[in-house]
Amino acid sequence: MTAPFTLRPYQQEAVDATLRHFRQSDASAVIVLPTGAGKSLVIAELARLARRKILVLTHVKELVEQNHAKYESYGLAGGVFSAGLKRKENHHQVTFASVQSVSANLDQFRDEYSLVIIDECHRVSGDDSSQYQRIIDLLRQQNDALKVLGLTATPYRLAMGWIYRYHYRGFVRGAGDGQDKPFAHCIYELPLSYMINRGYLTRPELVNAAVAQYDFSALARDRFGEYAEKDVNDLLGKHQRVTRAIIEQVTELAADRKGVMIFAATVDHAREITGYLPQQQTALVTGTTERQDRDLLIQSFKQRQLKFLVNVSVLTTGFDAPHVDLIAILRPTQSVSLYQQIVGRGLRLDDGKQDCLVIDYAGNHVNLHHPEVGEPKPDPDSEPVQVFCPGCGFANIFWGKTDGDGRVVEHYGRRCQGLLEPVEEDKPDAQTDHPQQCDYRFRFKECPHCGAENDIAARNCHQCHQAIIDPDDQLRDALKLKNAMVIRCAGVTVSVAGSRLKLTYHGEDGEELGESFDFGKPAQRAVFNRLFGRRFANGQAPKTFNNADEVMEQQAVLPAPDFVVARRHKHYWQVQERIFDYHGPYRKANEAP
């Protein structure tokens, strides 16, 4: 059958990437397309090409309806399984369903499905007991080769970071080893800037909130980085003048605008905001608004009978009102995904629409085009730096610091994020094959049993699986002993006498510990190179030193351990342990107590 739509080039590329991936692998995959890029068309085309049963899941009835409508526009009949739409059809080749309805009726999905497509897949938590995972587990019982494809504009979650592990451009997401992710591969990604520059989306005009801003920085956050509603209400209740001033500015800026969406922090906050807006032009939608009332209010807004739409924690996905050209964000969030979804409500094209004003009154500071996701910023002075891997040459981007000439003087990367293509003769089974992450580590914990390098947080060696001594245990045990000394090392100095190299470790309180390495003895030279040469220049430029004078010439960038542990032997102290790259509860030198 001839398709009623001609896919845009990037939509066809996304379809082709999906077919190519699943012909070679059963591993789960993600497609990243910005809001407004037409994910429903990609889904419809994949469903049209399917020859076996597939299930399309999403979390709101509006998206179920939208995806189903696109598919039926091909002249094909698809089923809908959604309590919100009062339809429970599961006998078609293609079924469009809400995850809640399928999860509540698992006994009706015992057929063999070849593919599950999850729209807005950033909502998949990876929890084994989640609704999505229970559905996938059930379908895998009927077909162990089940394919799982996710589509999203925002491939990250709070407290998880990126929702996939491997990127098709040849790098790994996430710093830790073996991190559990809901999806294995990102197989296609289209930047937001591509859509804007080519006229597929409206340009966002980010405006500074010149009148007033809320300051939520003093509030405590939960483990997901969000604030308790009571704390937010207490703060906002003390700043009603700020809210009034903000809404006065929004109203003034809205004079020449067609549709205004205001995102409030709490229900009480939303009610206060609504009270400052023109009553006949304003609607308030919250999670407790009756479904019938919400549908009527949204319809009135879309038909431009209302100009202002105030909402709390709703209308961030599955909501399409192209005329929206002013977004006011009055709620704090640590979720990059949520922030981008909010802004995305104003980026769709509409007749006469030139841009969309976006004003953030909550100080969220999210970069729409290059969001900071994954590893938290170590300190305010850190910036993204490029660090080349000495092993494979991959250009990693880590948090770090540079000098006045732009050279990297410090970085916080642990392991190279480059992907290495597998050697085909070593792994002939293409169905289970995937690229391997480069095993070069800039920071590492050495296994005392086999010498393998492990992540600094590892408890067991990845190679021999033996337990690795925990640095916290080392420090705690040493601090209990009367004949042991532990110093927080603030630096190291070097001196040379013939072939012998002496290192002096300086504690922050003036203590000193020393040890020597005789470079005339191969065994001692090898120990020094393993401890210090391998970590040279933050692991960016590992060196093998052949004599003590070479070390002396490079002493300015010689790596210093964070802690040095020594034991007393009659009249002198002998260094027992040097702890590098420490991350734990004990304070390091020159850190605030």
TrEMBL record:
Keyword Ribonucleoprotein part of the UniProt annotation: no
InterPro entries in alphabetical order: Helicase/UvrB_N, Helicase_ATP-bd, Helicase_C-like, Helicase_Restrict-Modif_Enz, P-loop_NTPase, Ribosomal_zn-bd
Helicase C-terminal domain mapped to chain residues: 246-391
Gene Ontology MF term list: helicase activity
Keyword hit for Cytoplasm: no
Keywords: ATP-binding, Helicase, Hydrolase, Nucleotide-binding
Helicase ATP-binding domain span: 20-173
Name of the protein in question: DEAD/DEAH box helicase
Organism: Marinobacter xestospongiae
